[in-house]
Amino acid sequence: MSIDPARHSAELLNLVREATPLVQCITNKVVTNVTANTLLALGAAPAMVDIRGEAGVFAGIASGLLVNLGTPTEEQRDAAREAVPSANAAGTPWVLDPVAVGVLPVRTALAHELLAGRPTVIRGNASEIMALAGAGAGGRGVDASDATDSAADAAAHLAATHGSVVAVSGPVDLITDGRRIARVANGDPLLTLVTGGGCALGAVTAAFLAASDDPFAGAVAATLVYTVAAEIAAADPGGVGTVGPGTFAPRFLDALAQLTAEQVVERARVRVTTVDASGVAGEVTGIDAADAAAALVRS
Amino acid sequence: MSIDPARHSAELLNLVREATPLVQCITNKVVTNVTANTLLALGAAPAMVDIRGEAGVFAGIASGLLVNLGTPTEEQRDAAREAVPSANAAGTPWVLDPVAVGVLPVRTALAHELLAGRPTVIRGNASEIMALAGAGAGGRGVDASDATDSAADAAAHLAATHGSVVAVSGPVDLITDGRRIARVANGDPLLTLVTGGGCALGAVTAAFLAASDDPFAGAVAATLVYTVAAEIAAADPGGVGTVGPGTFAPRFLDALAQLTAEQVVERARVRVTTVDASGVAGEVTGIDAADAAAALVRS
Amino acid sequence: MSIDPARHSAELLNLVREATPLVQCITNKVVTNVTANTLLALGAAPAMVDIRGEAGVFAGIASGLLVNLGTPTEEQRDAAREAVPSANAAGTPWVLDPVAVGVLPVRTALAHELLAGRPTVIRGNASEIMALAGAGAGGRGVDASDATDSAADAAAHLAATHGSVVAVSGPVDLITDGRRIARVANGDPLLTLVTGGGCALGAVTAAFLAASDDPFAGAVAATLVYTVAAEIAAADPGGVGTVGPGTFAPRFLDALAQLTAEQVVERARVRVTTVDASGVAGEVTGIDAADAAAALVRS
To answer: Which positions does UniProt annotate for substrate binding (chains A, B, C) (predicted)?
Structure first.
């Protein structure tokens, strides 16, 4: 059976809101507040438990975990080292966001260490995904200087070697588990002009993983819901003037809080393709239509 | 003499604005910014002095102190241990906000340690107050899973054993010093959809303690002023569209900055009752009408 | 040749936007988010790299560096000690913002230690600049209790002894390199009612230093651009209601993002004077017209 990815994402949004997943965030100091507010607007419950002696305990009871390496203090690094094995032991899905990896030594070493814990999802911009996969120079740290598609090979490689879903942010977002590739064309450039545009998506992804047995479908839904809300926020529905980055941020939270399943379906610009054993992409219409092709890839 | 709690709160608001109390905050990383902005909007002066070697010095000159355990890094824990005895030695009133106590081990141990310093006010949601008093399981950490009134006994117990005023956030806020109970019915559900909805109230309470000889009256005024501002912010006075959590946050700061004493009196939904020696509540009309009853309780 | 300071500032704004300078911020936890968003709105790229083992590496590749002492954790203090020599070795301009110096011991010691690294610009309020120069009592830490002009002597002294440009925030901002004094009368009182009003200006200054060979001109341009944007934000262009501190903050980011060079020139209220060897000020019209006078001062 083939499931339409837009409809499936809308259903997952409803599931997230019903379940109010508890999302533990070990994240950077720039986006802590906006990440928590984004989770609240989505309908999830944020918990920024990132100290030694608590991070591991909490990862065992959380619904999902985000480890974002944006400003990894010594205490946060130890917290991440506690949380990841605890999450894995408890079956808590977790997201690794390797901010500025490749450019800076401490986080790069930590990212590779945490990769061994096989993240459920790895989320980053093209530079970061390429750096993590060992390709490219890593950019200037925080901005995406590579096109998303140039990171597709790196994403596929990471997915294959770590069993992770890999999500690459860009003008078109790309999500892959190695056998399926989703491209989400929703979003707005204003997302790149506010802090947390990418980082908060990592937390939203962790929330959707708690609601989906299929991490690929969860990551696609998170990206779609997030970028559709951004489009609505940028569209200036109240007509009170030009939307700049300052007023966009609160509008985005409003749009996310008020987003309906119908809006997700109507606005979705998502396409899922499969990769066959020869690496040739073939278009499909459903988010799980790749099962047959997958058999080829995995065998 | 009986003082109307709404009018008294309005007067304390004016006193806070005249005095610009310097409020030291050792608080969590999620709400640091919104807490500082809330204090500024109120007319107080925020000072987030939370490092070793400075927290104790500053607590001796601050007008009020907040210790919030939301994300207690090792350095903040030491800062709290410096600040509390210094505040007590200098007569600086202080507020303990035991975020997620009972759920997580490090903060739970610290909360009990700090309790020995006899906080002027203890502020939390029902789960936290019950956990701190040794009742209930402590909820999931950050959301209020118990009704406020179910925490009334726990609040009374904490008040009696530590000489503190205890303030419990919820749909109806409850404040007690063991002999008086105030219930504040103002507020808006949007306060629970933005970070800092509860945490920033702790800082506002510290500001009002600096302006009131009676910590109970100070805590009531803080809660009333804060929740009335929230109501106004949620009411969409400009009529520019539906208020969601994103646009509510800046509107709340505007409403707090522009709040008049008259608005506090007009909108107040506050009721103060006393508890007699047998534990039976008797309604009173004034915030200090409990003096006679208090003699019974304390004897 | 004399250059009009308003026109020159407008040109530097265009240069900043073309170059997208990478601004490393070691800054306080209250303003981390608003500082990053302010840099993004300006057209610069923020990078909050403030941990041991990375701060020094990054200062060597950043376009500019801010060291703000608002909440200097132990890890941040070490990061600053790494970053400053690295910035100096690489020729990266850097800004020191000595928040609350003079009041609190840890940051005061660190500020004097960092001063030896000869900041390109020192930015603070009057109390802080006077405390750093050894004059005045240092105020209450975070608010400006001295008039800007009373800090003019202290600013001149700091400029002379450390070879730094000194920028003093206040109702009228004062910027001096010891031979030139600029006074910028733009701005709005709402800047003092939101966190980051001063701190984010330090980061903006670092961005302009990356675009200007003359640190004095860079600091003047940063102050002018920043305070003109604040005026526009406070002016309620959309006419949707009274602007309070909450709605001012996002409007300010919008105004900064949409600010044109023409608006800077039209609204600028900036005056540059020189100081002759006898300490007597003489008015000039251009930002570099002081060259002749400077010869007197420096000889």
So the answer is: 48, 196
Looking at the predicted structure, is the pLDDT value of residue B137 above 90?
no
Question: Which subunits count as partners of chain A given 3+ CB pairs below 8 Å?
Answer: B, C
B235 touches chain C (CB under 8 A): no
What is the reported pLDDT for B11?
A: 98
User: What DSSP character marks residue C53?
Assistant: T
Could you tell me if B290 lies within 8 Å of chain C, comparing CB atoms?
no
What's chain B's Rg over C-alpha atoms?
18
In a domain, A99, yes or no: yes
Q: Is C70 helix (H, G, I), strand (E, B) or coil?
A: coil
Give the residue with greater pLDDT, C80 vs A145: C80
- Contact criterion met (CB < 8 Å) for C257 and A240: no
pLDDT at A281 over 80: no
Give the residue on A whose Cα is nearest the Cα of C250: A246
- Judge whether B293 lies within some domain: no
Q: Does A279 touch chain C (CB under 8 A)?
A: no
Q: Residue A148: is its pLDDT beyond 80?
A: no
Q: Which residues of A228-252 are buried (b: 16+ CB within 10 A; e: fewer)?
A: bbbbbbbeeeeeeeebbbbbbbbbb
pLDDT in tens, B207-246: 999 999 999 999 999 999 999 999 999 996 555 567 899 9
**Contact predicate A69/A99, CB 8 Å:** yes
Size of interface A-B (CB pairs under 8 A): 101
Q: Which of C34, C141, C240 sits opposite B238 (nearest CB)?
A: C240
Q: How far is B130 from chain A (nearest CA, A)?
A: 20
**Is residue B176 within a helix (H) or strand (E), and if so which, with residue range?**
strand B173-176
C83 to chain A nearest CA, in Å? 14
Which of A45-59, B47-61, C127-141, C282-296 has the lowest average pLDDT?
C282-296
pLDDT band at C289 (very low <50, low <70, confident <90, very high): very low
A169 carries a ligand binding annotation = yes
CATH number at residue B27: 3.40.1190.20
A298 within a domain of the structure (yes/no): no
Per the structure, the complete domain to which residue C129 belongs is given by: 5-290
How many CB pairs below 8 Å do chains B and C form together? 100
Average pLDDT for chain A: 89
Helices (H) and strands (E) in chain B, counts: 12, 10
Picking from A32, A34, A193, the nearest residue to C41 by CB comes out as A193
**Residue B187 placed within a domain:** yes
The chain C residue lying nearest B59, using CA atoms, is C104
Where does residue B150 rank: exposed (0-12), middle (13-18), buried (19+ CB within 10 A)?
middle
Query: Are residues B53 and C105, on separate chains, in Cβ contact within 8 Å?
Result: yes
**Residue C110 bridge partners (DSSP):** none
Look at chain B and report how many structural domains it folds into. 1
Does A298 or C73 have the greater pLDDT score? Answer: C73
Task: Decide: A76 and A49 in contact? Cβ < 8 Å.
Answer: no
* Residue B164: per-residue pLDDT: 98
Phi, psi (5° rounding) for residue B43? 110, 10
pLDDT band at C298 (very low <50, low <70, confident <90, very high): very low
Residues C256-285 have pLDDT tens digits of 999 999 999 999 999 999 986 565 556 555
Binding-site residue ranges of B: 48, 123, 169, 196
Q: What is the pLDDT of residues C9-25, one digit of tens each?
A: 999 999 999 999 999 99
